[in-house]
Design brief:
The longest helix is centred in the middle third of the chain and has 33 residues, at 49-81. The model has no long low-confidence stretch (mean pLDDT 88). This protein has a five-stranded antiparallel β-sheet. By secondary structure, it is of the alpha+beta class. The protein folds into two domains: 8-81; 87-186, no CATH class. It has helices spanning 10-33, 49-81, 167-186; strands spanning 2-8, 42-43, 46-47, 87-90, 93-96, 105-108, 112-122, 127-136, 149-152, 155-159, 163-164. The protein is built from three helices and eleven strands, in the order βαββαββββββββα.
């Protein structure tokens, strides 16, 4: 039975889609519209040599904005329509989605030593991020290079930024399920 389902925040996905849409509109303006961007330089009726160089540059920037914005918008739209959980707290263990887009692994409570929350330093953004720390005694078939997570010894640090519900609530539900599993196993 599923005790708790953890998803990415729909608000964050919506904002990513909105930024993508703004980039697509900016690409249309840069290449064709010129409502906000400056048009290529021209002498009277004809485009000058400088204008042709500007036009080529506009095409490159427009293509980059269009591809990036379109990718962001479509990815966000798909993730809003096809909601997939990041993590499930089950009676039998934690179902982790760290092996790829459609692949998950259930780690049994017997293989987990502890579950807690923490904050790790994000080396790329030089800030701290929320993480779910799962100390795993027997990693089994979990990937060596997991998606959205990293191994630190026997601990799997899973990026929990943008989770709904918050990582502290996930820890509470996981500990309750672990304690109940331990009580049932002791009988």
């Amino acid at each position: 039975m599923i005790r708790l389902r953890v998803d990415r925040s729909p608000g964050l996905q919506f904002l990513i889609g909105l930024v993508g849409l703004v980039l697509v509109v900016a690409a249309i303006d840069i290449v064709w519209g010129h409502w906000l961007s400056t048009p290529p330089h021209h002498n009277g009726e004809a485009i000058s040599t400088l204008g042709r160089a500007q036009q080529r540059s506009d095409y490159v920037w427009g293509a980059v904005f269009l591809v990036a914005g379109g990718t962001m918008f479509i990815t966000s739209l798909v993730s809003l329509l096809r909601r997939r959980p990041v993590l499930l707290v089950l009676d039998e263990g934690l179902e982790l989605h760290v092996a790829g887009r459609d692949r998950s692994h259930v780690v049994a409570w017997d293989a987990i030593r502890s579950v807690r929350s923490g904050r790790d330093r994000d080396e790329h953004a030089s800030r701290f991020r929320d993480v779910l720390i799962v100390d795993i005694a027997q990693p089994g078939d979990l990937p060596a290079d997991p998606w959205g997570a990293e191994w630190q010894g026997s601990e799997l640090h899973i990026d929990a930024d943008g989770w709904l519900p918050d990582v502290t609530e996930v820890v509470v539900h996981a500990r309750l399920a672990m304690d109940e599993h331990d009580r049932d196993g002791a009988r």
